[in-house]
Amino acid sequence: MHLTLKFLGEIDENKVEQIEKVLERLSDGSRTFTMKIIGTGYFPPDKRNPRVLWLGIEEEESLKILQSRLEEEMENLGFPKEKRKFHPHLTLGRVKIPSNLREIMLHLEKYGPQKFGEMEVRKITFFKSVLKPAGAEYSVLSEFELK
Known about the structure:
Blueprint: H1 13-28, E1 33-43, E2 52-57, H2 61-76, E3 89-94, H3 102-110, E4 115-121, E5 123-132, E6 135-145
Helix pairs in contact: 1-2
């Protein structure tokens, strides 16, 4: 599982080094912090056709600052700023066929306010994802330790 701070989409190979320099600079200026996992849900919030099932992340100032700084830096590199509000979450799964979701939806609603624990955030990982028929395949391009 991972928490997406910024989805970049398809990028030119010559941008990779620029992105890595930004990530290095951001990690040098950021400290490790604790992330609290709380709640469950789905996107979009319309119960009829959910596409993503998720675990929520409690809004934490260090996380908001890191994501906001990354958003600004990526905009400076030519990546469009996200119009939607940042909603930190861990994706549990994606819905391909929306049938037989009733029981899953009941469980998500049941555990909506549940606290699932905490984890220490120690690094930023730059992933490459390739969409395949079975789902996205991720590979690590680089990692940057928080201070």
